[in-house]
Every structure is written in structure tokens, then in C-alpha cells.
Amino acid sequence: AVSYEEHLAGVNTVAAPIAGRDGVPLGALVVLGPASRLDSSAIHPVGRELMAAARRITGTVGAVAISSGPRPRTRAGGQSDVQCVLPWGAQLGEAPVWVGREKRLYWVDILHPAVHRFDPVTGKNETCNTAKLVSAVLPSEDGRLVVASQDGVERFDFERGLFTRFAEPEPGVPENRLNDAKVDPHGRLWVGSMRLDVSRPTGSLYRLTKTGEVARAESGFTVANGLAWSPDGSTFYFVDTVPGIIYAYDFDAREGSIANRRVFVTVPEAEGRPDGLAVDADGGVWCAIWDGWRVSRYRPDGRLDRAVELPVPRPTSVAFGGDDLATLFITSARTRLPASTLTEAPLSGGIFACNPGERGLATSLFCV
Questions:
Q1: On the chain, which terminus has fewer CB atoms closer than 10 Å, C or N?
Q2: Buried b (16+ CB within 10 A) or exposed e, 83-93
Q3: What residues are labeled active site?
């Protein structure tokens, strides 16, 4: 938990729970200090140390982290012509989406709450800091934006930073939050949820219509994450990060329903955890591998095609963009990385780009 002067002016605070065997906190470790010293660049490394100390105290029982730490960097001989197009240093950069009408890449920082708008031609990145967590941003057909936030799915005015309530998929479930979201080829919005402490599989997958009607499509996920559809719209891909699984479903475009869940890919824990997804025009499935230093492309039959090696351990998500949808943009995180890793990977938290040879699919717009 992080507090930026929420309780005392000029004082920032960071805390980590000491959890018992049933996941219920027994207490907490807390550090507070002057905001000028315990600022946004220092507070997350301090939090990482507190979390590590809490794990030592409890013998590693309690809340389950997505991973205990980045894997050693290895070179598998994959594509490596990746450029850092925005050395931003985001704590948890996520949810990139290309908005063709603006020729901009929108993305979010979940832990330093903000929605960003990046122009890859000029290199300019505009920021709208938000007073609450935003985990995904999506364009709608009326020219506005919708976001997944800690308060549900909301309309969002980037210029003014204003939220307007639209729908709440999980009312009365304060231990959960929404995570990644995408729009299907027919304009319906899909969003997953996860437990805040990642301790139990209480996450679900929801479908929202333009009238704000919410339907639960699936449940039982730990960290509901990347979503994408095949080029013909017949297959839906979905990630549960903690078990390391990318699922595939049959997708009924007319009804907006999913069926016949099967395992598309299982990423071995020793190689990292799967995160955000994108599908190219040839049906290849691109997945950011958290703690894996890479983005992997899988063929439609689930076989690994190749990897794009990265100079950072924690890529979070991917999106095709640019005028011809031939650029693959990759967001990344620096949260909880030890100093030794940040020394090796100082661009962690930046946005990267490459031209892999395939083209992406146009971003679907939410029908409102």
C-alpha cells in the first residue's frame, strides 16, 4: 500500500502486510518519510524491500506474488532489433492500444495512476494523472474513451481528466479490481478482474454492451489478463497469468459468447509468466512474458514461432500500431525490481517498438 500525502501533508508512506497461513494479515511493516525524499522514484523500491522482509518473517506463506523475481537474462537468438521509443520509467506500464484516427498510442501506468497518449512520430508523450487506479483504456466509436478503473468501467475525458460512471461489473467485491480489457470485433467490451492481493482465484471475465449490460462469461482466474481475437473472429484468447496459461475459446460473434475452453499455451514458470496479448493479421499470437525478457509469438496451433528479445525483464503488454499497423509496441514495468536488475535494465518502465514483419489488426471500437 502506498500513500502520497493522503494522511499527513508532506509525508509519504509505504506498507506491506505480514500475512498468516490463511492469508489474513497479522500486522504490517510500515515506512514513512518526508515526501521530498520518499518520492515516487524511491517509494516502490522501499516497498519491495518491505515485501521481501515480510516474506522472510512469515516463511514465504501468505499472499502469492506473480513471481518472486526476474529470471536471469538469456539470449535465445531471437529478433533483437528493438528500440526504446519512450524511456519513461513507468512503475507498471500497461494496456497499450493504437487509436488510428488520432495516430496515437494510449497506455496506462497502473501504480503511478495515469493515462498516457504517445505520438511515435514526434516522441511526445502527454500525461493525464488520475486520482485512482486505471488498468486499461479503449477508444469508442463516438470519439471518446472508456477505461477500466477501480470504480468499474467508466467514460474518460483525457483532456480534462474526468470520469463518468458507465457500469460496475463487480459491485460489492472490494477485494477485487478490474485488470485488462479489450473490445471484440463487434464492438462489445470484455474485461477481466483479479484479487488485489493475488492470493485466490476470484477473478472473472465479463462482457459489456453499449447499454451497460454486464454478463459474466467465465470465472475462477487468479490474474485475468491479456485478451485477443483471431483474424476471422472465431477464436478468443485469454491469459491467466499466475498459472502461466493462455486459453483459447470458440467465439460466437453473433451472440458474443465463448465456449470450449482449452489450453492454447502453457509458459513454464522458469521462463516467466504470460501477460498482455495481441494477434497479427496472419493469426500469430504475440504475448509479453513478464520476467522473461521477451515477447513470444505463437502460431495458431500453439507452437512457439519465435521470440523478440528485450533489454528489460518485465514486458507487460503489446499492441500493433503505426499507419500500416506494422509496428509492435511493447509496454514494460520497473515495479519491485531490485537495484541490481535496474542497473542491468535501466530502461525498465519504458515503451519499446520493433517491426517484426507481420502486420496487426485494426483496433476495434466500443459501440456506444
A1: N
A2: ebbbebbbbbb
A3: 275
Q: Are the C-beta atoms of residues 245 and 213 closer than 8 Å to each other? A: no
Does residue 53 share a domain with residue 194?
no
Burial of 74 (0-12, 13-18, 19+ CB in 10 A): exposed
Q: Is the dihedral of CA 289, 286, 176, 314 positive or negative?
A: positive
Note the pTM of the prediction, 2 decimals.
Answer: 0.84
**Residue 306 belongs to some domain of the structure:** yes
Q: Is residue 296 part of a domain?
A: yes
* Domain containing residue 264: 83-354
Which tens digits make up the pLDDT trace of 191-232? 999 988 788 899 999 999 999 999 999 999 999 999 999 999
Rounded Cα distance between 243 and 181, Å, is 19
**C-alpha cell belonging to residue 111:** 501504480
- First CA to last CA across the chain, in angstroms? 35
Q: Going by DSSP bridges, is the β-strand pair 315-321/304-309 parallel, antiparallel, or unpaired?
A: unpaired
Task: Identify whether 76 is part of a domain.
Answer: no
